Known about the structure:
With about 140 residues, this protein is mainly alpha-helical. It has a domain at about 85-115. It has helices spanning about 25-45, 50-55, 60-70, 95-115, 125-139; strands at about 5, 15, 80, 90. The chain is flat. The strands form 2 sheets. The protein has a two-stranded antiparallel ribbon with strand order 1-2. Helices cover about 50% and strands about 10% of the residues.
Amino acid sequence: MxxxxxxxxxxxxxxxxxxxxxxxxxxxxxQDQMQEISSYVRDNPHSTVxxxxxxxxxxxxxxxxxxxxxxxxxxxVQLEYPCESCGAPITSGxxxxxxxxxxxxxxxxxxxxxxAKAPAPAAKKGSGMYSRDMGKKLS
Length: 139
Ligand SMILES: [Zn+2]
Ligand SMILES: [Zn+2]
């Protein structure tokens, strides 16, 4: 019963959001469009996102969502879409090979910095050693 009123991200109308993010009308429209996109891509496996949008008059956002959900992979289609960082055409993931390499490098550098910053574990002194000595003396 945690349904909340929201503005549809497509048409702006207020609706009860069940986790889809768009109103019922827009949801149905999107389902139709997704089917159109799917069949278009099957017929034109090497089309780009831009070509699909122009051919079917759909939003790039919708095509991108389908790519992220991996809908075209199951059809055996390699669709080209822009790298989220530099815009180079890619067919899988979010970034091109170059940007992936750059990101990996950056990640490594941040990790190194974090390790260098972390304080060295304090050496344990005191009670443990002391009681062991006491034990020796007693026996
Ligand atoms: Zn709507
Ligand atoms: Zn890139």
